[in-house]
Every structure is written in structure tokens, then in C-alpha cells.
Amino acid sequence: MENLDLVVLRSLHGWRAAGRHALLATVVRTWGSSPRPVGSIMALCEDGAVVGSVSGGCIEDDLIARYTSRYQRPQATQEPASQPDPDPHQIAPGAPEFVKYGISADEAHRFGLPCGGTLELLLEYDPASEPLGELIAALDAGRLMQRSVRLADGAVTLTPAAAPAALALDAQQLSNTFGPGYRMLLIGAGQLAEYLATMALFSGFAVTVCDPREEYRSAFQVPGATLVTDMPDDVVQAFKPDRRSCVVALTHDPKLDDLALIEALQTEAFYIGGIGSRRNNAARRARLIEHFGQTEESLRRLRGPIGIYIGSKTPPEIAVSVMAEILAVKNGVTLPRDLEVAQAKDLRELAHNDAGGQVCGVG
Fold this sequence. Notes:
Layout: H1 4-17, E1 22-31, E2 41-45, E3 50-52, H2 58-68, E4 97-101, H3 105-110, E5 118-125, H4 129-140, E6 145-150, E7 156-160, E8 168-169, E9 173-178, E10 183-187, H5 191-202, E11 206-210, H6 214-217, E12 226-228, H7 232-239, E13 245-249, H8 254-265, E14 271-274, H9 278-292, E15 302-303, H10 315-330, H11 341-354
Helix pairs in contact: 1-4, 5-10, 7-8
């Protein structure tokens, strides 16, 4: 599954390339609580089809009703209606325009916004198909792009971006940065990889699974994941991890995991980790330092034990734990230390020993 922005842009491009009317809605400002963050986008076709989201659903329903009504033919017997009062949310063709929802308490209740929540959208009518196609092609090629919209007439400019950036809005233009899809490379095609790959796919990651071992590879069944057979360190080099990539080693086999992790640490991958207990991870770090010339500093970004502490025991529970940590790192969330697996287990063992209990296990 692709990230939501790409899904929205592809749908919008398809509608416009087919000559259909459509709009692009972007969340440009929020006040108080808001269901969707600034920069979120949604595409709406003339027939009411919608992709993406700018709220919990009520605002989408209102936009659909107002936009599609412009393309409904009036019945021949219908009498001309009296001119209605101006509607602050009425959609009209032309240059991009702003619309606010949730300004009053009544509107906040009507549109399902949280108490005190207000959001402002920029609506672009019939965005040109060609720039949309160019943007999608750049994202497919792994490039980070800034899309700028001139507010006076809706003209679009595309420029490469050096780093992710928050949406920017001034009196002349709106600029929104779009990145290529997030990617995950899993080393090992065991049962845990199946659960983690599935969760990553529905979280918007493109997933590649590497395992040169035929006995594991032949049993791997996750539609949508790419399965490759080369040696993991070669796969990491070919994968070219960037700031929107993560690499997770799951084989428990140093011959497969170690070199792949060393290669990953030479990249900008936002998350690099290896499965294993506290003891196994300590042994891995010592092995990499002694035999592969690594240092504590070069291994600073290597995570392990991976995941957050939820008391997980089974492969699906462990996958939930690992995926939660990956998403937290991706979203820039600093987790409390007591959620780290090693820290949590150390504290539990300390408490157990203080109570006079016996500690056993592989952690």
C-alpha cells in the first residue's frame, strides 16, 4: 500500500487526465483540536468520489454535496429558485480559495470537530494534469519535491527539496513538500517478518523482504511485499536506504544480519534495528566492534532490543511492538525510557529480585 499522499495524487491525476472535473483540498491552518494535521490533502471528483481526508468525515460530506451539485442537471420542470443567501462555504470555479470550518460552536458540532476545533482549507479547482504527472514521476523516482501553488491563479511550480519541510503559506503562494513513499527492508522471511510486513504495508510502507535461505523464503506469503534472494548486505546496497527508509534484521543469524546492519548504518535510514534479547544484542555489538572495526559511536543508531515494551510473547505481538517503535521514530515521537524493552525488563527484574523472586528466561 502506498502512502496516502501518493494515493490522493494518483487518483487526482487520473481524473484530470481523463478530462473529469476535480478539486484538491489542503489543510492549511488549524486552531485548537483538529482531526487532521496541516498539510493533509484530499481529492474530490465531480461524481462525488473522494480519496484522502481533511477531517473525520463530516467536512468531506459537506464538500461532496456542494461540489457535486454544480454538475447536477436541473430538471426541466423545476422552477427557478430564488437567490439564496451567500454561503461562506459555497464552492465556485476559478482561482484557489480558502474556506473555514468550525468557526462557531454550531458549526463545530455540525461538522464533528472537537470542541474549539477550527480548520482552514485551500481548494484548488481542476488542477492541471501535467504538473501532477510530473510530481508523481519524481516521487516514484525517490525524490523529495516541493509543490507551490500561486494563489492568484492556481499556477503550480515544482522544485526539488533538500529536506522535508512543513507547509508554508503567505499572501502569494502555498508550498507543500511531498516525499517518496516510506520503505521497509526486512532481513529474514520468517513468521515474524510476515506479521511485520503486513503491518507495514497497511501503514503505507513499501516492503522488501530479503532471505537467501530457500526453506524460509518458500513459505513466505504476504501479497504486496517484494521478496528477494540475494545476500542481505548486497540487498542493502542495492536498496539505497534514505531518510524515509528503515532496515530491520530478523534472522538471528550473524552471517546474514551483521553485514546487512553494517551496510545500513552507512546510510540515512531513519530506523535500523536487529531482533534479539538483551544478551543477544549485547553480543552483537561486541562482535561488530571486535571483528568488524565498529565503535560505540558508529553503532549509536543501531537499535536493539527493538520494539516497545508491551509484554509481547508471540510473533504477532512482537510485530506490533516493533511496528509501534518504527512509527514513533518516523513521526518524531520520543518514547519514555520505561517503554524501551531493555529498560523495562531491567526494572521488572530489579523489582522481582527485591521481592525475593527468581528470574529466568532469555531476555
